[in-house]
Amino acid sequence: ATPIMQGIVNLHHDLMFFITFILFFVFVAMGRVLYWFSIDNNPLTTQGAKNLIFRNEPITHGTTIEVVWTVIPALILVVVALPSFALLYSIDEVIDPSLTIKCVGHQWYWSYEYSDSANENGSLNFDSYMIPEDELELGELRLLEVDNRVVLPTGTHIRVLITALDVLHSWAVPSLGIKVDSCPGRLNETSLFILREGVFYGQCSEICG
């Protein structure tokens, strides 16, 4: 639902191409080794191998193949690194937000504050508790539904400030491509640009202790 999550999905698809190629190549290489160097096709006993070593016979090195299996993985890492770095820098991009929301982690609920939505009583703030299983209505999702949802606009640059008051938590919304630790005494910051409307569920992503 955000450009960041789209970038993560696209990067995953690109990496799967390399992973599939490497997996196929390794299986082929292992199959050839197991076949050609089996005891039936290459009956070189352990004692015979020791005799070759004791006679100081020269061992043949495949310089070409050693260069190839060093250079190709290095090139693959470079090809993978370039889009990865671009995605990481886009995640940390500093924007001029139109809306700022502050998320404060507690055991076991979150507090939210719309810092830019001041009224006669100050900023708009509320607590969001998970709905117990025995109070869920038909169609609601277990361990995901809350009593007060955070409502955010689409097509708007949003700044999210995240912290905690007791222990470590993690504010994570997979559909938005966000997973940020909330630490007591520390204010972490991230940004959002939601592309489409919908209900996007957060999840527990921290052993908060």
From TrEMBL:
<keyword id="KW-0812">Transmembrane</keyword>
<dbReference type="GO" id="GO:0042773">
    <property type="term" value="P:ATP synthesis coupled electron transport"/>
</dbReference>
<feature type="transmembrane region" description="Helical">
    <location>
        <begin position="15"/>
        <end position="37"/>
    </location>
</feature>
<dbReference type="Pfam" id="PF02790">
    <property type="entry name" value="COX2_TM"/>
</dbReference>
<feature type="domain" description="Cytochrome oxidase subunit II transmembrane region profile">
    <location>
        <begin position="1"/>
        <end position="95"/>
    </location>
</feature>
<protein>
    <recommendedName>
        <fullName>Cytochrome c oxidase subunit 2</fullName>
    </recommendedName>
</protein>
<keyword id="KW-0999">Mitochondrion inner membrane</keyword>
<keyword id="KW-0813">Transport</keyword>
<keyword id="KW-1278">Translocase</keyword>
<keyword id="KW-0496">Mitochondrion</keyword>
<dbReference type="InterPro" id="IPR011759">
    <property type="entry name" value="Cyt_c_oxidase_su2_TM_dom"/>
</dbReference>
<dbReference type="GO" id="GO:0005743">
    <property type="term" value="C:mitochondrial inner membrane"/>
</dbReference>
<feature type="domain" description="Cytochrome oxidase subunit II copper A binding">
    <location>
        <begin position="96"/>
        <end position="209"/>
    </location>
</feature>
<keyword id="KW-0249">Electron transport</keyword>
<dbReference type="GO" id="GO:0005507">
    <property type="term" value="F:copper ion binding"/>
</dbReference>
<keyword id="KW-0679">Respiratory chain</keyword>
<keyword id="KW-0186">Copper</keyword>
<dbReference type="Pfam" id="PF00116">
    <property type="entry name" value="COX2"/>
</dbReference>
<feature type="transmembrane region" description="Helical">
    <location>
        <begin position="67"/>
        <end position="89"/>
    </location>
</feature>
<dbReference type="InterPro" id="IPR002429">
    <property type="entry name" value="CcO_II-like_C"/>
</dbReference>
<keyword id="KW-1133">Transmembrane helix</keyword>
<comment type="function">
    <text>Component of the cytochrome c oxidase, the last enzyme in the mitochondrial electron transport chain which drives oxidative phosphorylation. The respiratory chain contains 3 multisubunit complexes succinate dehydrogenase (complex II, CII), ubiquinol-cytochrome c oxidoreductase (cytochrome b-c1 complex, complex III, CIII) and cytochrome c oxidase (complex IV, CIV), that cooperate to transfer electrons derived from NADH and succinate to molecular oxygen, creating an electrochemical gradient over the inner membrane that drives transmembrane transport and the ATP synthase.</text>
</comment>
<dbReference type="InterPro" id="IPR036257">
    <property type="entry name" value="Cyt_c_oxidase_su2_TM_sf"/>
</dbReference>
<dbReference type="InterPro" id="IPR045187">
    <property type="entry name" value="CcO_II"/>
</dbReference>
<dbReference type="InterPro" id="IPR008972">
    <property type="entry name" value="Cupredoxin"/>
</dbReference>
<keyword id="KW-0472">Membrane</keyword>
<keyword id="KW-0479">Metal-binding</keyword>
<comment type="similarity">
    <text>Belongs to the cytochrome c oxidase subunit 2 family.</text>
</comment>
<dbReference type="GO" id="GO:0004129">
    <property type="term" value="F:cytochrome-c oxidase activity"/>
</dbReference>
